[in-house]
Write a structure and sequence with these properties.
- This protein has 407 residues and is of the alpha/beta class.
- The chain has two domains: 32-268, Type I PLP-dependent aspartate aminotransferase-like (Major domain) (Aspartate Aminotransferase, domain 2); 272-400, Alpha-Beta Complex (Aspartate Aminotransferase, domain 1).
- 46% of the residues lie in helices and 14% in strands.
- The chain is built from 16 helices and 15 strands.
- A seven-stranded mixed β-sheet has the order 4-10-9-8-7-5-6, sandwiched between helices. It has a four-stranded antiparallel β-sheet with strand order 11-12-15-14.
- Helix 7 links the parallel strand 7 (161-164) and strand 8.
- Helix 15 runs antiparallel to helix 16 (386-400).
- The longest helix is centred in the last third of the chain and has 23 residues, at 271-293.
- It is globular and about 65 Å long.
- The two termini are 24 Å apart.
- The structure holds pyridoxal-5'-phosphate.
- Pyridoxal-5'-phosphate binds at residues 26, 88-90, 117, 119, 165-167, 192, 194-195, 218, 229.
């Protein structure tokens, strides 16, 4: 690369990725094919509009690529329509809101501290600014969604839209129950499956597609594609939705990323991908077993998906922020996270969120994840023992040695 400054930083970031255990639940490592498409000459092309209805010339190959991406997305998730143009998960959500809501309309979403995402009504997000969001939480004892409470809140506020799906919820979500509640109050149902899309693709999490009017997603978490968004919907909403994405909220689509999404959807149809997702689930269970043996409290007692929340405040008296910082010094990357009914401020949090998708891609198995649990426990129980931390860092380095980012 001619730009030495940026080239060196990319090289350093690659080295960081290679030498750390990546446990951020929303990250993953893409295949070489996806990387190649995302960095390809397709980035040169303007293609406002949709296949065969563009506002620019020279789109004959772009049209084919985007059509393939759309058809593969529909096939993978058994959906009637797919829009593959959202640049991100947030824009996918914005596109749906803009398609069916007016400014100030009432919407129901999951509370952020219970696991919801910023775009599900946080006051600082466009969602909370433009619409009147109300929220449901989780049950204080089970820390799982209480569908009776969701129904009660829905009956109280009569939302035009109910949003479900989450950023840090470790349990199965019952989309059928959400649909029944939405029908009872006459609301649309949108499922944001960003985190679990890979599991849904292979049938290891129930699919929201039969129940939701709109399903939004990112493509870069468990789905293991490029950093981007996706929307699936019923055929009857196709024109409404497509118009809201372009020209509604976006201009030229990122066709290099759309090509990478097309490859991602094809990879997700391979039998290998189901084997991978099964390993993701098994690895989370191994990590939970290891941490529980060390006396750590796991929010809701466990996990049904690729992530878990550890209550580090209760388990070892430190905040999530402190845990995140210390783990980083031994080359384990994760993020602080609020836990249900958290008493700490969002800048500190009582928990950390751990996910298995990224390291499973790098070839970690249950033994490795069990060891990772022990390393985390030793580190967080001895936060001032620098000598021990150095030993733990060496253990991390030996675990990641000879493990490529993506095979
Ligand atoms: N929806 C959920 C459930 C998420 O977890 C995220 C990101 O973490 C998003 C939407 C937003 O995705 P993006 O960061 O691509 O805007």
């Amino acid at each position: 690369m001619k730009d030495i400054e940026i080239g060196q930083l990319i090289a350093k970031e690659k080295e960081r990725q290679l030498t750390h255990i990546e446990l951020i639940a929303s990250e993953n490592f893409v295949s070489d094919d996806i990387l190649e498409a995302a960095g390809s000459i397709l980035t040169n092309k303007y293609a406002e509009g949709y296949p065969s209805k563009r506002y620019y010339g020279g789109c004959e190959y772009i049209d084919q690529i985007e059509t393939i991406a759309i058809e593969r997305a529909k096939k993978l998730f058994n959906a009637e329509h797919a829009n593959v143009q959202p640049h991100s998960g947030s824009q996918a959500n914005m596109g749906v809101y803009q398609a069916i809501l007016n400014h100030g309309d009432v919407v129901l979403g999951m509370d952020l501290s219970a696991g919801g995402h910023l775009t599900h009504g946080h006051p600082l997000s466009f969602s909370g600014i433009n619409y009147e969001f109300h929220s449901y939480k989780v049950d204080p004892i089970t820390e799982c969604i209480d569908y009776d409470e969701v129904r009660n809140v829905a009956l109280k506020y009569k939302p035009k839209l109910i949003v479900c799906g989450a950023s840090s919820y470790p349990r199965f979500i019952d989309f059928k129950k959400f649909k029944e509640i939405a029908d009872e109050v006459g609301a649309y149902l949108m499922v944001d499956m960003a985190h679990i899309a890979g599991l849904v693709a292979v049938g290891l999490h129930p699919s929201p597609v039969p129940y939701a009017d709109f399903v939004t997603s990112t493509t870069h978490k468990t789905l293991r594609g490029p950093r981007a968004g996706l929307i699936l919907c019923k055929e009857k909403y196709k024109d409404l939705l497509d118009k809201r994405i372009f020209p509604g909220i976006q201009g030229g689509p990122l066709e290099h990323i759309i090509a990478a999404k097309a490859i991602c959807f094809k990879e997700a149809m391979n039998v290998d991908f189901k084997v991978y997702q099964k390993q993701v689930l098994d690895n989370v269970q191994a990590l939970i077993k290891s941490l529980k043996e060390e006396g750590f409290r796991i929010v809701s007692g466990g996990s049904d998906n690729h992530l878990l929340l550890v209550d580090v405040k209760k388990s070892c008296g430190i905040t999530g922020k402190k845990a995140e910082t210390i783990l980083d010094t031994i080359n384990i990357t994760c993020n602080k996270n609020s836990i249900p009914f958290d008493q700490e401020k969002p800048a500190y949090c009582s928990g950390i969120r751990l996910g298995s998708a990224a390291m499973t891609t790098r070839g970690f198995n249950c033994d490795d994840f069990y060891k990772v649990g022990k390393i985390i426990a030793k580190c967080l129980k001895n936060i001032d023992d620098k000598k021990l931390h150095e030993e733990l860092k060496q253990e991390v380095l030996s675990l990641v040695k000879d493990k490529p980012l993506h095979k």
